[in-house]
Write a structure and sequence with these properties.
392 residues, alpha/beta, eight-stranded parallel barrel, two-stranded antiparallel ribbon, 15 helices, 10 strands
Length: 392
């Protein structure tokens, strides 16, 4: 038994599980990719707690524990998931600077080749200082990052740009920048629409705060460049809007859900289609996510939902407002699961969530059987509580 603090300041007794879930306990599936859906887990990074480096603008580059960071990617590949690298889950724009992100992309792509995994890497403009810039400078920053990712052999993901959001005067500037990049791209890319709940600096992306107008610009970019867009990654936490968008996508363009609130139904789909997945929550949920999608491979929709539906409560908790701090819970669960030896994040982001928030994340994850060694997870939670002066 362990006593956990709730959000009202009370200590509540909780009895942890004795055994992990079957999908967590059994060996991974040997890296075999699911057939029914393409499933990316956006992966977190492991900070090097013994090196200085905060990843702040003008400061030293973020210090990463490369062995632990790459080992976690091998864990994801072993379950048959694709890895979405150097994106917001990896703290792009919140501790991970471009120098570290470039090295991460190159190392992860090399590791993917070695183990036969698939990796897609974020391409952005975060080497630019904050604020507005000439449009040519924004294009140039994108081009610099795209060159690194393409040379690594990874699939590019064109991420939403804070610099472009601050610079663009309207939809035509988005059409200009993205059109330029797509014409130059050697291979089809993924376009990433990240909503302001994940990053407030992206308010009004695609040239309008009116989401219908923004969607029109987004679709025009895709339609104007046939064969250049593999898919779109939509992170608006609005299931109805995502369904409406995916029904309007040109043939052959995939919709990758980034909706960490409603992903089971979006991935299952309806009579008009379905979403693939590119999700930060599949970082901690990897064994269960892989098990669920393989049930879809077997035509077992009911089994798919029986595995994935119970995970939504944990995901909604991790991604609750302020949503951009979800990364703290993701790394916390990786520590409890034994994927890393500490709960330290680049930029000190381990402090972004409260102790009650983390305690509830532990309880929900333990209830799902997510921890390969429940005793280890309980011990680490007790140590965290003691650090905060709580006798568990």
């Amino acid at each position: 038994m362990i006593r956990l603090p709730d959000e009202n300041g009370a200590l509540r007794t909780y009895e942890p599980r004795a055994e992990p879930a079957d999908a967590v306990a059994r060996p991974p599936g040997g890296g075999r990719l699911p057939a029914a859906r393409t499933v990316f887990a956006a992966a977190h990074v492991v900070a090097d707690r013994f090196r200085d480096g905060e990843g702040e603008p003008g400061g030293r580059s973020a210090a990463l524990d490369w062995d632990a960071t790459l080992a976690f990617r091998r864990h994801l590949w072993s379950h048959g998931l694709c890895v979405a690298e150097a994106m917001d889950t990896a703290q792009r724009g919140m501790g991970l600077d471009w120098a570290a992100a470039a090295e991460l992309a190159e190392r992860s792509a090399a590791e993917a080749r070695a183990v036969g995994g698939h990796v897609a890497c974020g391409v952005g403009t975060d080497q630019l200082p904050p604020g507005a810039h000439d449009l040519a400078d924004v294009r140039g920053a994108y081009e610099e990052q795209a060159e690194v990712v393409e040379k690594s052999g990874a699939q590019p993901v064109l991420m939403a740009s804070r610099a472009l959001a601050a610079t663009a005067r309207g939809p035509e500037d988005y059409l200009d920048v993205y059109g330029h990049l797509l014409r130059q791209s050697a291979e089809p890319v993924v376009l990433h629409w990240l909503g302001p709940m994940f990053d407030p600096a992206l308010e009004g992306y695609w040239g309008s705060t009116d989401l219908d107008a923004a969607t029109g610009t987004f679709l025009r970019i895709i339609e104007d460049h046939p064969g250049k867009v593999d898919g779109v990654k939509v992170s608006l936490l609005d299931a109805e809007r995502e369904v409406a968008l995916r029904r309007r996508l040109p043939d052959g363009v995939r919709c990758y859900t980034g909706d960490d609130f409603d992903y089971p139904g979006l991935i299952e789909g309806d009579g008009h289609g379905f979403s693939h997945a590119l999700l930060g929550v599949f970082d901690p949920l990897a064994p269960l996510a892989a098990d669920a999608v393989r049930r879809l491979d077997a035509g077992d929709t009911e089994g798919f939902r029986s595995v994935l539906d119970p995970t939504v409560a944990l995901s909604r908790h991790l991604f609750r407002a302020p949503t951009r701090f979800y990364k703290t819970g993701v790394v916390f669960l990786a520590w409890l699961a034994g994927h890393q030896e500490h709960f330290v994040m680049v930029g000190g982001m381990q402090s972004a969530r409260s102790l009650p928030h983390l305690a509830r994340a532990y309880q929900l994850a333990d209830g799902l059987g997510l921890f390969p060694d429940p005793g280890l997870a309980e011990d680490r939670v007790r140590r965290l509580l003691q650090l905060h002066g709580v006798r568990a």
